[in-house]
Amino acid sequence: LVAIYREVLSACRAMQRPVVVAYHGPEGSWHHSAARQVFGSSAALKAAPDIPAVFDAAEREQADYAVVAIENSSEGQVGATLDRLVDTPLRICAEIFVDVHHCLVGRGELARVRRVYSFPLALEQCANWLRRNLPNAEWIEVANTAAGAERASQDEEGAAVASREAAHIWQLSLLAENIEDYVGNRTRFLVLG
Asked: Tell me, what's the pLDDT at 95?
C-alpha cells in the first residue's frame, strides 16, 4: 500500500512540475534506491559523481532535493555528508532507512569468478562470505556498488557486490543473495532541500 501511494504522489507532483532529486552514484546505487523510495519513479533523478556534488546540485538549485547517506549500521557515519552538513544552507526535510542486502552478481558462474568489483565498504561488509566462497578472487575497489556492477558486466570472470536493482540494470545474474556478514545492515539517508 505504501508503494502504491508513493507512486500516486510521485505522479501528481510530476504533473504539477517534475521534482528533480540529486543522488550519489549511477543508477542502481543505494543512494538511487533511497531516492526512488522517497520520491517514486516519476521524479527526475539526477546522478552526481560524489556526495559533495549532490550538495552542490541542490545548493545551486539544479535539483529541488538532495539524498545523501549519513550513517550505516555496520560502518558508522559518512564523513563527506557530515562535513557538508556543517556549512550547507539546505535543511533536512526527511530521513529514510534502507535495509542493505548485498548480492554477488555477474555474467558467468560462481566457480568462474576471479575478480570482485565493489565499493570498499561493501567489500568489507561481505568479507567473511567472500573469503569463504571465493578465497582466490581479487577484490577491486570502485566508486560505488553500481559502478562495480557495470565493471562486472564487461568481465566474463568478474562479479560485483551490488544490489538486486544494479543486477537488473546491468543484466547480470544473481550468483548469491544476502551475502552481507551482518544481517541487520541498514543505511540512514537524509533528504535535504
From this structure: 96
